[in-house]
Amino acid sequence: MLKPRRNLQARLCALATVLGLLLLSGCSAIKPWVKPYERNNLADPIMSFSMDPVESGYMHHVFQAREAARGAEGGGGGGCGCN
User: Fold this and answer.
1) Would you say the pTM of this structure is higher than 0.70?
2) DSSP string across the chain
3) Measured between alpha carbons, how far is 12 from 71 in angstroms, rounded to an integer?
4) CA–centroid distance for 10 within its chain
5) 5: which of 22, 49, 62, 80 is 20 to 30 A away, CA to CA?
């Protein structure tokens, strides 16, 4: 009597594993979500956090001088030294 129940549990476990793997495979990103030709929309000045970028630059300079710390304000540059 216990053997058919174990068989059913094994099949349900295998089915749950297969369904779980199928769900997880749907989360993989094969292609980038933002296409290269759509990135110019994200670089639009209207998407910036500050209303006035010049004033924001001055304030960042003041904060860096006052706090003796640099960075962490989301500045540009790609790490190649071409800031």
Assistant:
1) no
2) -HHHHHHHHHHHHHHHHHHHHHHHHTT--SS-SS-GGGHHHHTSGGGSSSS-HHHHHHHHHHHHHHHT----S-----SSS--
3) 53
4) 38
5) 22
